[in-house]
């Protein structure tokens, strides 16, 4: 893992997808059936949980050589997918996300194991807060299908805050001068650590903000517990 991701908790890589690749991804996204418990619509906001399972044809398009090289270089080898979500924040969306850390994982079944707490179940999928070591092993890949900036809900982050471990929101001091708005161009990728403090504002423009959020890890869970969306990442194709 590179110094930027390790020390700051985030980084941006532009140009991971070219125009032709983005058009192919867009066609699949636009052709989704949008029905079933994993398809969520709240007002204008649209999201798809278990995205790679719901839309399996998207995987080969997302894991192109550029993304595979980025994962290998910036995160490390032997990674596998543990969660995938599609977010569509349309123009003028009033959906904002307050400051928080991502502190849960999705697993196949509930097991009472020391250190795993805060169990919930939605649509047959269990979520739980694991010991911090498991969250430290997760890296998030945010694939941007649209230009994203401060006007249409780009993430704001508190650099290096992931290094403090799990911190209650009420105990976190957010200093405006320390906050960074992470702008990502269309076809670019933001990498981040789940425990970095992050938020996003409402959209103030007529620009769409579609993001595919994929979490990867190289750490197996203990005592037979299984990641609910575990998928192997494809191997790098031969040159």
Strand/helix succession: HEHEEHHHEEEEEHEEEEEEE
Distance between the termini: 24 Å
Q: Averaging pLDDT over every residue, what do you get?
A: 92
The beta-strand count equals 15
CATH architecture: Sandwich
Helix content: 10-25%
How much of the sequence lies in strands comes to 25-35%
Structural class: alpha+beta
Q: What's the CATH C level?
A: Mainly Beta
What does the secondary structure layout of this molecule look like, with pairings?
Layout: H1 3-8, E1 10-13, H2 19-30, E2 39-42, E3 45-48, H3 51-54, H4 59-62, H5 65-75, E4 80-89, E5 97-100, E6 105-107, E7 117-122, E8 125-129, H6 132-136, E9 139-144, E10 155-157, E11 180-181, E12 189-192, E13 198-200, E14 209-217, E15 231-232
Antiparallel strand pairs: 1-12, 2-3, 3-4, 4-14, 4-15, 5-13, 6-8, 7-8, 9-12, 9-14, 10-11, 10-13
């Amino acid at each position: 893992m590179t110094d930027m991701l390790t020390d700051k908790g985030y980084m941006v890589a532009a140009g991971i997808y070219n125009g032709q690749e983005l058009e192919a991804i867009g066609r699949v996204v636009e052709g989704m059936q949008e029905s079933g418990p994993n398809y969520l619509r709240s007002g204008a906001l649209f999201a798809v949980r278990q995205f790679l399972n719901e839309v399996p044809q998207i995987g080969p398009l997302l894991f192109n050589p550029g993304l595979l090289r980025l994962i290998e270089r910036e995160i490390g080898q032997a990674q596998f997918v543990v969660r995938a979500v599609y977010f569509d924040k349309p123009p003028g969306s009033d959906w904002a996300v307050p400051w928080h850390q991502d502190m849960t994982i999705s697993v196949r079944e509930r097991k009472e194991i020391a250190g795993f707490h805060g169990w919930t179940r939605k649509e047959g999928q269990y979520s739980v807060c694991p010991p911090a070591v498991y969250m430290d092993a997760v890296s998030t890949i945010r694939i941007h299908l649209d230009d994203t900036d401060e006007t249409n809900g780009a993430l704001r982050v508190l650099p290096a805050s992931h290094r403090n471990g799990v911190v209650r929101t009420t105990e976190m001091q957010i200093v405006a001068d320390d906050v960074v708005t992470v702008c990502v161009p269309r076809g670019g990728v933001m990498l981040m650590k789940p425990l970095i403090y992050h938020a996003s504002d409402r959209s103030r423009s007529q620009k769409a903000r579609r993001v595919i959020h994929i979490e990867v890890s190289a750490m197996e869970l203990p005592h037979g517990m299984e990641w609910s969306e575990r998928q192997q990442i494809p191997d790098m194709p031969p040159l």
